[in-house]
Amino acid sequence: MVPREQYIPGPDCGAQFSRFWAAHVDALDRHLSANTWALAAVTVVLIAYPIARIVMPAVFNGIVPDVVRTVFNLL
Hints:
The chain is mainly alpha-helical. The protein has a domain of 43 residues. 80% of the residues lie in helices and 0% in strands. It has two helices and no strands. The longest helix is centred in the C-terminal third of the chain and has 41 residues.
């Protein structure tokens, strides 16, 4: 197990978190097969694609008209 002190934030919290995360990623890299990585990549793409094609344009359409109206009112 990892000592409890590693989870207590300190002045070097960002660097400490980065080392902690890198150790976990290295462990995953050592223990997961190429087929598992490929399956994970396909899963991420299948989830991200609808978000990028449906959700993001809807959010932009909701935000941009207000911004454009505000700029025109300033002119």
